[in-house]
Amino acid sequence: MQVQGQFQMTSHSQVCTNNLLVLHFILQSIDGIGSPASLLFQYMAGFIRPGAITYEEIVFNMETQEQVINHEREITQRLSSNEARRVVIFITNHSDEVRGDLFVSPGSSATVTEVSESWPV
Questions:
Q1: How many CB atoms lie within 10 A of CB 1?
Q2: Is residue 3 part of a domain?
Q3: Which residues contact 119 (CB under 8 A, 6 or more apart)?
Q4: Where is mean pLDDT largest: 10-14, 47-51, 99-103, 115-119?
Q5: Residue 34 lies in a domain
Q6: How far apart are the first and last CA of the chain?
């Protein structure tokens, strides 16, 4: 097979190397191995200097008010020292087959309004 055509490159390209955080929220019952979030992290690590890219996977289960508080505490602790100027957020979840609402715990779904009203202010 012979390929015909011209090979072209851009006259100028640039890669932003600011610190990057890939933040992956994942429902407790889902396995995150091979997820698009981890694949993006591995791919971008080839372009950004070591130590300037971080991957954080935060497993969530917000069935009870205590779990919501613990989730907020975990996020605060894990991200308080991160200096990323850019953040890419992934949420891996299921949705209710009848209502379409996202799951907040492995066996319970809720509307966005219900979730936001239950979070501590």
A1: 2
A2: no
A3: 68, 72
A4: 47-51
A5: yes
A6: 64
